[in-house]
């Protein structure tokens, strides 16, 4: 099964919207690193310099770090899916190289594998 242009355009639109949303959410708790698209560094508000302020900053950082890691991983998946679209390998399972069902791609446009794998 080869994905038709209309389906590919729909899936690409879904990926671009997800990319925009992920970048927006990441921007709330992290800042982009110039080295690579989709790479972020967790940030926190500098509240002050006394011990309580520093403890609050550390707490905020430790709460933001796992969220940033999860969002960044999802963003990387989206960017890689868009790259696969560009190079013509989108919609193929990375393990068995069979077509990923279009229903799975609509549910998760950045899917890398079929349900079997």
Helix content: 55-70%
How would you characterize the largest beta sheet?
2 strands, antiparallel
CATH superfamily: DksA, coiled-coil domain
Query: For the CA atoms, what is the radius of gyration?
Result: 18 Å
User: Shape, please?
Assistant: elongated
- Please list the strands of the largest sheet in the order they lie side by side: 1-2
Mean pLDDT: 87
State the CATH class: Mainly Alpha
Tally of separate domains = 1
H and E string = HEEHH
Low-pLDDT segments, ≥5 res? none
**Protein structure class:** mainly alpha
CATH architecture call: Up-down Bundle
Beta-strand portion reads 5-15%
Distance between the termini: 18 Å
How many helices? The count is: 3
Number of E-state strands: 2
CATH topology: Four Helix Bundle (Hemerythrin (Met), subunit A)
